[in-house]
Amino acid sequence: MIRGELGFLLRGIVGVNVLLGLVLLTVYGHDLPSLLGVLAARSPQLLFGSARLAEFGGGFSANILISLAAMALAMVAGTLLGNGLISPSLAIKGPCAAAMNVLRNSPWLVILYAMLYLLPFEFRLFGHSFNFSPFLKAVVGLSLPIAANFAEIFRGGVNSIPSGQWESARALGYRRVQILRHIVIPQSIPLMIPNIMSLYAALFIGTSLVVVTGTSDVLSVTRTIIATEGERIATGLYIYVLALFFIFCFPIAVASRWLELRLQSRA
Amino acid sequence: MSDANPAILTFTDVWKSYGDSEVLKGISLTVRERAVVCIIGPSGSGKSTLLRCANGLVPIDSGTIRVGRFEVEKLKTERSLVPLRHEIAMVFQQYNLFPHRTVLQNIMMAPVQVLREDKSAVRDRALALLAKVHLADKAKAYPGELSGGQQQRVAIARALAMQPRIILFDEVTAALDPEMVSEVLTVIRELAQDGMTCILVTHEMRFAEELADEVFFTDRGVIVEHGPPRTLFHQPQDPRLQSFLKKIL
Amino acid sequence: MMLLGLDFGWLADPLYIRWLINGTLMTILISVVGMAAAGAVGVAGAAVIHLRVPVLHDLARLLVELFRNTPPLVQLFFLYFMLSDMGLSFTDAAGRSIPLFGGFTCVVLSLGLYNGAVAVEIIRSGITAVPRQTIEGARSLGYSRAQIFREIELPMALRLTMPAMTNNIVSLIKTSAQASLIAVADVMYYASQIMLENFRNLEVMLVIWIIYLLIASGFAGAARMVEHLLRIPGFGSQS
Fold first, then answer.
1. Helical packing angle, B148-161 and B119-132, nearest 10°
2. A88 plus A115 within the same structural domain
3. What does the pLDDT look like over C185-198, one tens digit per residue?
4. Residue B99 is nearest to which of A167, A169, A187, comparing CB atoms?
5. Which of B102, B109, B122, B152 to mutate: most A Cβ within 10 Å?
6. Three-class SS of residue A127?
7. What is the SS3 assignment for B176?
8. Does residue A72 share a domain with residue A182?
9. Tens digits of per-residue pLDDT, B238-247?
10. Is the same domain home to A64 and A23?
11. A266 & A193 share domain
12. C164 touches chain A (CB under 8 A)
């Protein structure tokens, strides 16, 4: 079965890039070689943030770093929120469900702006003063909606365990926290993994929005280049960025679908 | 089995409703120690609910339940129910083994994690129980690799590992293919002969007739008739029991 | 008016209120047109792929994967610059040259492509959920492939996948906020205008947040009512 998915993956990557190439050809015609030259020359800046490879951490690599940091933060917060969602106590479940609904129905752009204005410029932790850089604000801003989605995945995973497991565990004398820890959560983790992977892909796509926080990510670099080189190359640049995101996200999507099919056939 | 054995489980006028529907309407029964009791009746008559009230899985609305020295209706928190579940164990129709643990781990888990017993002592006991249900060679297998009958026998061993005085069986052969029913019934028969108090909700009438000391017939939340199997099956008094027996025998 | 130490007094200004109302209406308009576009793309794409139309099938699959796995914002910028590059415009009665593809069109197109691609996959998964016996029954009655798709698979798929489609609708409304980044006058855009004037950034953002929540809840509630009206008794999860 992996042969088929792998083939699909390769055909997808090749096919889409060919398609994008054709679009470039249509738009630029005989200007294409010079455009490709500019794209190649600007690649280090787009990918890493600066022409000097020593300065790593901007451009596309910023998108990657932000997504990883936000995912980590979101998984921690999401697990807490998820536990609140499955709590039998209404006093805990109510506010958690409300928070989750608010975050899932809010535009990520609004949340990012709100974080931009809500979070201070600096904060003190253990006696040290930290700068709340745009990067950090972007990480926190993105982690909020992702945490809400993660909590929903967590809740779905726990609820998918048949009630017979709960019943026999209780008959053996297990209490609720023990049942979650020893029996329910270990069984639900494999089921949650494909959803977590798609969530990460969605998060990565969402990092395209951090340009509004002033972080120097790939879109921010793109704007700078357009300002320097002129609007003529804008289309080509955005196609390049499309290709970058596609090559990163498409394999994750294919892998998560393959995993999900495998888990379903085993169940 | 003599009538002089003390009562180990007593229901007194137990009522239970789910919302508007009354499931148990004044159940009263007594089970003596070392007895085998079977509960039969049409579906929806409250048999499974009755069992689940005995070990506290389902709280009752009124009445009292006495199991050993426990007053079950007074145990409100999960923590207070733990000692009761040491005393009375349950085996389910869907076996409900934990699929992510091996057979041996399934049997050992609860005594170690719930009762906090010493691991090596539990392991010896678990292996002995596996031998008792004739599955000694399957210790390292996973439930998914076993047949239904084998899984059910593991479930019985898992219940026995808690060293209970009473075991509840909730239609444990109903989900099995016919050829596997007898291997499970054999294990239950051996348990009864060893002196375990067993309460079975079952459709296996011949098994009930052979092994039970007393049979209870429930219909729509009440115990309609009860008595030794010979009288109940061959000289049924109540017309509801008569028509029920005619349908299944 | 102060609330929790934040100044909401600017809400009393009639100009700002008019801006917010105009912006909200524009956001709703973008969302509705975007949904129509996404719906059209979704059905067309699902049809082309499911019926295995030669050439178009592979092209559609590539396009769906492309638009699902790339940021809608980048798609928006790409469309904006590409379409203005191609210089398509028409002259109106006064002789002025009006770009054919203004900001509004670009936003709606990008929403149609992104959420449309998501819709294609949702509809396709709904089609696989239609029981095979139903299809076999239709075939033995003489229905053609296209007829089966139009009369049976599509209607059932749409009903079965309403929860996922509702999520897609909410996602579309959330994504529409990026219209402000190409100067389309939606509620987000007006918000930034207000912020430029009164510098009450946090308060303005909170109000916008609430407006979006109301819009999203409104559409989600309407979608749930439609789902309830159209549900198939005895099918799928009953809740």
1. 140
2. yes
3. 899 999 988 888 88
4. A187
5. B109
6. coil
7. coil
8. yes
9. 888 888 888 8
10. no
11. no
12. no
